[in-house]
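User: Could you go from structure to sequence for me? I need the amino acid at each position, not a summary. C-alpha cells:
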C-alpha cells in the first residue's frame, strides 16, 4: 500500500512538471513573436524622417520625379548669353538734330513703335518745304505735259515743245520721289504733310520690342547722322553661345539638348543646338549656337555653365543632391505624404520622407543614374534638395 501511494505521487509530480514546462514554453514563444513585431515596426519607423511645415520651408526642400537623361555622353562646356543680329538694334538718325526729349533709361522695356526720342532741327523744316514746293511744281508739270500731248496729237504744237514738257515732268517727278523718301527716313509721312503741318521736330520710334541696354545721349545734345543714340535688345530669342574644344566638336550635332545654368543661379534651363561652327578659334575651340527654350529675361554677356547631351541612350536619373551616402550605401528620401498633427505649439502640417536604398550608376553633368526598388513607382516624389538635412535629422532622432 505504501508503495502504491509513492508511485502515484511521483506520477502526479511528473504530470505537473510537464504542464509547467509546456506553459513556460508557450509564454516564451508569445514574447518572442511580440518582440520581433516591435523590432520590425521600429526599424520601419527609423527609416522615416518627419519635419514640420516650418522646417520644410527653412530647409528649402524640393521634390522631383526620376527623369530620363542621356548620361552616357555629356560634354561639360562654358559659354555666355548672346543676341542674334536681328534682335540687337542700334538706334541712329539719318539727319542730325538736337535731342529735345528722350523718355527712356537703360533697362526700360519698350514696345515696337513706341516713341523713344524726339529730335529738333531747322533742316527738317527746310526739307518739308522743299518737298511741298517740288510736289506743286510736279503737279504743274504733269498738267502741262498732258496738255502738250493733246496738242501734239492734233498737230497743233511742235514736237520739241512736247519733249521739253516731258523732260520737265519727269525731272519734277524724280525730285518729288527723292524728297518723299528723305522724309520717310526721318519718320515724316509725306502723304499726310500739308503746309500747315510743317514742324521742326521728328520722332524716333522703337523698331522692335525689348529693353534698352544703352543710352548714349541726353537732352540738349546734338546728334550727328549715324551716331548710335540707343540700343534695344529683344530678349525673347536669346542664344546660348558655347565653346567646345576641337577634339569634342564632332560629338555635337544640331538638335541635341543643352542643359545650362546662369552665374549665381541654380535653376537649370534647356536649349537646343541650332548650329555648329566651322571655324577654330585661337584657343582651339569651336563656337556652338543653341536656342534657349521659352522666354527668359537673360542679360546678354551673362556667363553660363552647360552640359551638351551627346549620348543616344537615356537612363533613369536624379540630380546628384538627391542621393545620400550612409554607411557605404546609397539612399534617397521618398515623400510618403503629409498629415496634420496637434502639438504643444498648435496644429501643424507634418511631412514624412522614407529613406529608401537605391542602386546608382554613371554620374555626369550634375545627374546620377539610379535604379529604383521594384515596389517604387517611377512618378514617386523624391527629395532633390535637403536630402542630407533629412538624413542628419533622422539619425539624430534615433540617437535621442
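Assistant: Here is the amino acid at each position, in order:
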Amino acid at each position: 500500500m505504501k508503495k502504491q501511494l509513492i508511485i502515484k505521487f511521483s506520477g502526479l509530480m511528473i504530470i505537473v512538471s510537464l504542464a509547467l514546462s509546456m506553459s513556460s514554453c508557450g509564454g516564451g514563444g508569445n514574447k518572442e513573436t511580440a518582440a520581433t513585431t516591435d523590432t520590425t515596426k521600429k526599424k520601419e519607423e527609423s527609416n522615416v524622417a518627419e519635419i514640420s511645415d516650418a522646417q520644410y520651408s527653412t530647409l528649402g526642400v524640393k521634390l522631383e520625379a526620376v527623369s530620363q537623361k542621356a548620361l552616357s555622353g555629356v560634354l561639360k562646356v562654358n559659354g555666355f548669353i548672346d543676341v542674334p543680329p536681328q534682335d540687337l538694334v542700334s538706334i541712329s538718325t539719318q539727319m542730325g538734330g538736337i535731342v529735345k526729349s528722350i523718355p527712356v533709361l537703360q533697362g526700360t522695356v519698350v514696345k515696337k513703335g513706341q516713341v523713344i526720342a524726339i529730335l529738333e532741327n531747322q533742316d527738317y523744316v527746310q526739307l518739308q518745304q522743299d518737298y511741298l514746293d517740288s510736289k506743286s511744281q510736279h503737279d504743274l508739270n504733269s498738267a502741262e505735259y498732258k496738255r502738250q500731248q493733246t496738242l501734239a496729237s492734233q498737230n497743233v504744237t511742235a514736237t520739241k515743245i512736247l519733249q521739253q514738257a516731258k523732260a520737265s515732268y519727269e525731272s519734277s517727278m524724280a525730285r518729288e520721289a527723292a524728297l518723299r523718301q528723305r522724309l520717310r527716313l526721318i519718320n515724316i509721312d509725306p502723304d499726310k504733310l500739308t503746309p500747315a503741318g510743317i514742324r521742326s521736330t521728328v520722332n524716333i520710334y522703337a523698331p522692335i520690342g525689348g529693353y534698352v541696354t544703352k543710352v548714349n545721349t541726353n537732352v540738349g545734345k546734338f546728334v550727328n547722322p549715324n551716331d548710335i543714340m540707343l540700343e534695344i535688345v529683344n530678349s525673347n530669342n536669346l542664344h546660348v553661345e558655347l565653346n567646345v574644344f576641337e577634339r569634342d566638336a564632332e560629338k555635337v550635332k544640331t538638335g541635341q539638348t543643352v542643359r545650362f545654368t546662369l552665374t549665381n543661379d541654380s535653376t537649370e534651363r534647356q536649349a537646343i543646338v541650332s548650329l555648329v561652327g566651322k571655324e577654330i578659334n585661337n584657343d582651339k575651340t569651336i563656337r556652338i549656337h543653341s536656342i534657349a527654350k521659352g522666354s527668359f529675361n537673360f542679360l546678354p554677356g551673362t556667363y553660363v555653365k552647360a552640359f551638351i547631351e551627346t549620348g543616344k541612350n537615356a537612363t533613369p536619373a536624379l540630380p546628384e543632391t538627391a542621393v545620400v551616402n550612409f554607411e557605404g550605401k546609397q539612399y534617397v528620401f521618398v515623400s510618403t505624404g503629409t498629415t496634420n498633427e496637434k502639438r504643444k505649439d498648435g496644429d501643424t502640417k507634418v511631412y514624412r520622407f522614407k529613406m529608401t536604398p537605391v542602386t546608382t550608376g554613371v554620374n555626369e553633368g550634375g545627374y546620377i543614374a539610379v535604379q529604383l526598388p521594384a515596389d517604387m513607382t517611377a512618378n514617386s516624389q523624391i527629395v532633390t534638395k535637403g536630402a542630407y538635412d533629412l538624413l542628419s535629422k533622422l539619425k539624430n532622432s534615433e540617437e535621442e
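One structural detail worth keeping in mind: The two ends are 69 Å apart (CA to CA).
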